[in-house]
Amino acid sequence: MKNIKVLGSGCTKCSKTAEIIATIAKEKGMEIALQKETRPEAIMNYHVMSTPAVVIDEQVVHWGSIPTRQMIESWLAE
């Protein structure tokens, strides 16, 4: 199971990112642990300067925009 965090203030883009990841994982029949992290001090620990950001198994894989379906599928396939 992959542990996925969506980092951000809770804005629309951050919520949409979490929603898309959950939807694609469900479509693929994958079990994930999805967490939304909104605390600024926790986000700063990842050295991310723009959100939304995506962290998979404690590795930052994306930041600054809503990721594409292809990107999310490739992360889930790894």
Summary, kept brief:
With 78 residues, this protein is α+β, with helices and mostly antiparallel strands. The protein is built from 3 helices and 4 strands.
Indicate the topology.
Blueprint: E1 2-7, H1 12-27, E2 32-37, H2 40-44, E3 53-56, E4 59-63, H3 69-77
Parallel strand pairs: 1-2
Antiparallel strand pairs: 1-3, 3-4
Helix pairs in contact: 1-3
What would you say this structure looks like, in words?
The chain has a 4-stranded mixed beta sheet. Helix 1 crosses helix 3 (69-77). A hairpin with a 2-residue loop joins strand 3 and strand 4 (59-63). It has 78 residues and is α+β, with helices and mostly antiparallel strands. The mean pLDDT is 96. The chain has one domain (2-77): Glutaredoxin (3-Layer(aba) Sandwich), CATH 3.40.30.10. The protein has helices at residues 12-27, 40-44, 69-77; strands at 2-7, 32-37, 53-56, 59-63.
Strand content: 25-35%
Output the strand order for the largest sheet. 2-1-3-4
Helical stretch tally: 3
The termini sit apart by 11 Å
Overall residue-averaged pLDDT value: 96
* Record field, number of beta strands: 4
Name the shape in a single word: globular
Oligomeric state of the chains in view: single chain
Overall structural domain count: 1
According to CATH, the fold-level topology is Glutaredoxin
Query: CATH superfamily, please?
Result: Glutaredoxin
Secondary-structure arrangement, i.e. CATH architecture: 3-Layer(aba) Sandwich
- In the CATH scheme, the class would be Alpha Beta
Major sheet:
4 strands, mixed
The H-and-E topology, N to C, reads as EHEHEEH
Task: Indicate the structural class.
Answer: alpha+beta
Low-confidence stretches: none
Helix content: 25-40%
Radius of gyration: 11 Å
